[in-house]
Amino acid sequence: MSFTVDEGAVSARQLVSATFTNSKLAAIKLAPPPGGTATTWLVTELAADQPYAWIYTDARALKAGTYCTSVRVEVLDSSNKSLSYVDVAAKVTVVAKGTTPTTDYKWAAYNGSVALTHVAAIAFPSSRATAPFSLIGGTTQDSQGRTIKFFDGFKADAATGLLRLDTSSSPLDRSIVRSTSFWSDAIYPKSLTYLMRVAPVAGVVYDSKTRLFEVELSLATPGASDGARIVLGIRNDTTAQSVYIGQPEESVAMPMAGTPLDMSVPHIYQVSVTLTGPRSGSFTVYADGSDTPIIPTVTSNDLRRAWLLNNYIQAGDNGDSAIVGDIDWMAWTTTGAFKPSQLKGALPGGLGVTTGY
245: which of 97, 168, 211, 299 is 20 to 30 A away, CA to CA? Predict the structure, then answer.
């Protein structure tokens, strides 16, 4: 874990993941640096099925410097008797007052350690609220008149913090989830920055019929007569379309290919969007924290039309080929359309690997 706080700040918060159940997480204690004083980081009580806890402390007690030490996570019973504990390596950096970013990004985040439908799958650190994704069910008809069913192809692994999507057993069917909405008004301009870390699965042969992942950003306002969507596809094959935007504009039928990446390793993908109207605006796609886009900025008054007139993050398999991939985490904010360099050190805590940010 890594913490960065501002010397003299009123408080600092960090979202972490734990797997404790039916007990109380009483405190996380920060071991002191040489010659320093121990600091206790208070946390909220864990519900029986709640794997997230808020950690906070009065940062006025921490002077500028680097604390390379550990935090102790201890579980107590109702009589405050210690049941178990674990020491977790941590780096705590306190910088001079006023030098940390002041932007409140109001992140929404998912870290892969719980099922997407869990009540706390989506965490909102700024408000301590949580929400689940919705798993889409039922059946539909495709363009060839075939009956397509929706099923749950996702499986979360708390030990690795990875969410696996595998639809190879039924490639013609669909497995998708949708987040809660992130805006409700029709006031423009609007912005969205979305990031996700996705890894290939070892031993899987990826080709044109077995993709790595797909995410759709639906950008309509509820009740509006029109709206835009952006579909980011990751194919993990050797073609130029290993990363692509599916039909970026309504009048453009073909997908837009990005700069090929080494798809044998995980990558962090970032989509930054600014809307000036329901289907007018621009978007850019980045990878791994670099400001050099892998898909250059698209500006249009004819962005691809939203399937549903609402806004949400839709992730999973919504096509007629299989998807097999591991999702480490997802995070998004509507406070701006940021470049990766603007997010250095600003992602929410507890995500997992954030190399490049």
Answer: 168
